[in-house]
Amino acid sequence: MSDFSTILITQNDMTDNELKAFIDELKENSVKELFVLPSYLSRAKTLLEGSGIMLGSFVDYPLAAGTIAKIAFETGELFRMGADILQVSLSIVDVKRRDWAHLEKVKNTVTPLAYGSSELRFSIETANLKEIDKIHLARVVNHLEIPSIAIDTVDTESAMHDATIFRMDGGNDLFIQVNIQNGTNDDIELIFENGASQVGRIVKAVEN
After folding, report:
1. Collapsing DSSP states into helix, strand and coil, what is residue 7?
2. Confidence at residue 176, expressed as pLDDT on a 0 to 100 scale
């Protein structure tokens, strides 16, 4: 396993044995954070106990089409269940329409729900966004003073490119997590060099 600091499991049909085996392997590596779907959160918290690995989950994933009330409920409930970090999905449709008012409402609603050491990251899949869409989003993130964003990308080249855009237009203080499906340690280093604060690996199916 390459030196990814964050692992994000998006598989929705894992068995308990598969989850346990995967987490046992993570404990032997230098992983700092593990994200799982909400249905696995409670079990993952138990399995991670004492490991020092922070536990994350996803809000309004994968469609990012929920109401403000739904997003707020999910955020509060997942923090209550023990999540340390949450990724709140941003709507690609909103980005393309430049519906920044909705993004601001989501930000203003969920930010107070993060308490103590809890952390929120807004998340966007960039594969279907144009260059100008990404630039506009990065500038709005800066304007709204959103401190953290997670970018799900297709490959290392896209990850490097997107990291550069969000670093240039999102500001020097923006925490940028770039998530890819596969990559070597050399790939990770290149993504860091292009502006990423952290690099994660998206796992769509754990290995049996």
Report:
1. strand
2. 98
d(CA 77, CA 71): 10
Residues 6+ apart with CB under 8 A from 49: none
Running along the chain, 208 residues long, what does each successive block of 10 average in pLDDT?
A: 87 96 91 97 96 97 95 97 97 96 96 92 96 98 97 95 98 97 94 97 88
Alpha-carbon distance of 166 to 204, in angstroms, equals: 25
**In three state form, how does the secondary structure of 126-195 look?**
CCCCCHHHHHHHHHHHHHCCCCEEEEECCCHHHHHHHHHHHHHHHCCCCEEEEEECCCCHHHHHHHHHCC
Look up tokens 């068995």; give the residue.
Answer: 15
Domains belonging to the chain, first-starting first, are 59-198 (3.20.20.70)
- Cα–Cα distance, 177 to 108 (Å, whole number): 21
pTM over cut 0.90: yes
